Every structure is written in structure tokens, then in C-alpha cells.
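Notes from the 1:1 (GR / supervisor)

We went over the backlog. Supervisor wanted to see one worked example end to end before approving the batch request, so GR pasted a single chain during the call. The sequence is below; no edits were made to it. Supervisor asked that the structure be written out right there so they could see what the output format looks like.
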Amino acid sequence: MYKLFIQAVFLFLCFFPFTVIANGINDVLKQADHLRTSAPDESAQLLASIPVEQLNEKQQAIYSFLKAFSTLMKGETQNGISQMEALANNTPFSDIRTRALSSLLNSYSGLHEWNKAFTTIELLRHAMVKIDDINIKDYAAIATISFYTNIQEYSSARSHAQLLIETTSNDRTICSAMNKKLYADIKLSNSNITEYNFKEAISFCQSLGETVLAQAIVTNLAQYYIDQKQPQRAQKILLENIDTVKSLNFQSLTSFFISLLIEAYEGSGNLESAAPYAEDIINNYSSDDFYYSHLVAFKVLSQLSERNKNYQESLVFFKKFKALEKRDFDDKMAQKLAIQKAKIDRDNQLKLLNKENKLLMTQTELVAERTRNTQLLLTCTVLLLGIAIIWLIKSRITHKMLRKIAQTDELTGICNRHYFTSQAETSLNYCQKTRQEVSFIVFDLDHFKQVNDNYGHQVGDWALKQAVLAVQKMCRANDIIGRLGGEEFAILLPGCGTDKANQLAESCRQAIANISTSETGHQFKITASFGISHNAQAGYDLDKLFACADQALYRSKESGRNKVYAYQDEVAVPS
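Structure output shown during the call:
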């Protein structure tokens, strides 16, 4: 829904100049109105130069509209809406009121305030009765198309836009309508549109000096390329125009533009190029106002950190991404419910008015109406329950995923060091309470650095995974295996004496030595050295067990590697 909000803001505020009232101040007002979308900063400067105390009533109304419009363009949405509401409620001029209502309709639907939006569209229809100016009618038509877009009635939005293109003589209106028609075509997956349709519209709007609208169509073209699995073409068109977009100082458009560029880089697998733009979004754009852009940014940064094996940073970014994804999901569900409720409220209001005017509703119809309302209430209740269940399932899946990331070594699939330590200490406490024996094995791969240096890290990763698989086949179900770091691993053996631990370690050593490396395309030997300790020497203290096993491992390596040594009475002896 965030994308709809961005489209609603920067696709609508785009056309219709006021008629010149007189010279002087009227000319400045006309110029400010003409530039309000193509050069919003210049428009704001012109308004600032106007002596407000010298304005007559009509000039004051025009000035108030343009000031409110400028405030919306700057992204100060609530402030701009307050100004527009005051103008719509108090101005005596029907043309100004119509324009204010049109802007409010767009803003309310963009902010998902659907009850206000449906109320406003009814007010706008009544206001249009008093309007003869075709340009103002076009302006209201654009607002209506934007409203259809926001409530996802894309077929209606497209047909109204096409009708407006065919009937209006105002080029700025045609530019805006072309924009909205292309956006609806994308949402409807219209197979008849091609990149030529977008480029033709961009060229037309640029010829009018409508830079904001032209760049809005650029975003539609980029989205079209992304949907067509052509991310490189989306990158090209976005990079060609990004400086122009940034110069407009229109944060809604700029943040959406950058988020599309990030998605295009992600689509081509070029996460490194996406990263600076993701950081730009996070550092320079509010997550409250532009949360979808932040969602895209955190997703890419999480993927890049994971690729670079910076798993802790990846997890931080992933959590932020999931939180924003949940917000996006909740917003979509809330919007659907709110639109449905607003439609129901509107329908009920119309039915009540019809009852008052005709006085022909029978008791049977009243009972039927109550039944329909009950059914609607039950439907909404079931829908809310379904949403809650989906959210709970999704949250549970996310929790499991995060827990697995936090506990598992990504390469080998066994416990990482932190989780291994936690599990081992829990098992040692239990063995101590139940007076069970416990053994501890530490092993690492011999000359592993040479494997990486001679055959590359990809082959090294393969060797690590194969070694772990070989060891897992030898271990019991209750043995705890963990990767301590690099090529070093540990195994805790609850209820296992020294003899059995020696046998298991020797089996693991032989299994690793028997690994065939032919599938890598290289011939080399994989061996490992093992050190064993037992609670008889080290007690049930994990650090002491580790230290003793490590000394035995050292002796194994010192005596030629590919051996198994056990620690006994401070001396490591071969098993």
C-alpha cells in the first residue's frame, strides 16, 4: 500500500493553471501556479515574494490554495491537509473549493483515511454541479482517477483516464491522465503495453516542462522492466534520471525512485551496487514516512551481509526487514478492511437517505437489512480472525527462522560456538546430577589452510561440510557436535567413557581420511587430528574439559597429525 500512497501523492498534484485575474500580483500567482509541479521551489519563492496584506479576497483564496499545495509537495502532509480543509470549509469561491476538495480526496486516500475519502468524493460531486470551467472539471476528474487507483479499482481508473485523454484539450491533463493509465496498465498486467508507450508519455510530459510527472512515468517504466525480468534496463533508466529527481527536492518521489533502483540491483544480483542507495534511504529518509523504502533497503543489506559472512549484522538487518514487512502486511490488511467498511458505511448512508425520501421501506426489508448487516459483521469477524491466524503463523515461522540463524553454523548445519557452549553446559549439569560419565573430543582438519590456498575457499568449504557429514554418521543421537571456528570442531559425549570415546574418535578419524575428493576436480587428502578428555580428569567443567582435550589435540599434531590422543593425568597419550 505504500507504493499506492507514493503514486497518489506525486502522480496527482500536477496540473491546471488559474485564469489570469489581473496584472501584477495576479501574474505572480498565475506563474506560481504554473510552476507548482514543474519547478516547486521556484513556485514557493514566488509565493514568498507576494505581499499578503495587499491581496483581495479572491487572490487570498488562490494564494492559500497554492501555499497548501506547496506544503503537500514538501512532504508536510498533515500540515498541508489542515490548510486544505480550512480552505474547503471556508472559501466562498466554488472553483477554489473544488480544487481543495480534489486535493483532499487524493490526500485522504493516500493516507488510507477511507471514511473521509468517501465523504469527500460525495462533496466533490455536489461541488461540480456549480462548475462550468472545463479545466477545473479535468482537475476533479484526475482526483477521481487517483481515488480509484488507491482503492485498487484499476479497471475503472484506466477507463476514466482513457476517456479523459480522448476528451480534454488541456495538455497538462493529458500528461497526468497518460501517467495514471500506464500505472493502471501495470497493475492490470496489460500485455498490450510496451516500453514505447512509456517513452512516448515521458517525452510528451517533458515537452510541457512537467518534470515531476515525467519522472513519475519513469518510475512506471522502471517497474515495467522489473516486472518483465529486465532489471538491467530498469537500472539504466533510473540512473539516467536520478540526478533530475533529486534536484526536484520531492522526498516522496525520490525515496520511491531509490527503492526501485535498489530492487533493480537486487533483481540482477548486484547487491554491492544496491548497498550505497540502501544506506542513503536509511540515513536520509524517515522510516515513518517512507517505510517501504526502508523495507527494501534492510532486505538488501541483510542479504549482502549474509553473502559477506557477517551473520550478526545480517541478523540485525533481517530483524528490521521483517518488522517492516509485518507493518506492510498489517497495513494492507487494515486498508482492505477500512475500504470495505467505508463502502459499507457509504452504502448504509445512501439506503437511510433513500428511506427518508421515499418512506416506502417495509418491515420485511428492514429485517433483510439487519440480516445482511449481521452477515457482513460475521464476515468481518471471520476475516479478522483469519488475519490474526495468518499473522500468528507467520510470526512463528519467522521466530523459528531467526532462532535457527542464531543457533546454527550456516556452512555445516551443526551448532555454532555459542549454541554448542549452551547445549554442552546444560548436558554437563545433567550428567553431574545423574553421575554419568562424559567425554569431550576436540578435532580440526590438518593443513586446512593449504587446501584453501591451493584449491580455493569453495573447495575448502566443501571439505569442511564433508568432514562434518562423516563425523555425524559415527556419532550417537545424543552427542552434541559444534563448530568452534574455522576448521576446529568439538563433540560432547554424554554417558560415554574413555574407551568408547577413543573408539568413536578413531572411527571419525578413519571416516574423514576415507573421504574422496574427486568430485571437486582435485585430488588431495583430508585428515584430522583428535584430542580427548574425560570428566575423571577435568570434572564437569566445560572450560577444563576443553583445555585438556586441546592439550591432547596439540600432542596429536606434534606427533605427526592424523592421530587420536587422549588426555590422562596431565599427559596426552595415543589411543
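Supervisor's comment: The first helix runs from residue 2 to 12.
Batch request approved.
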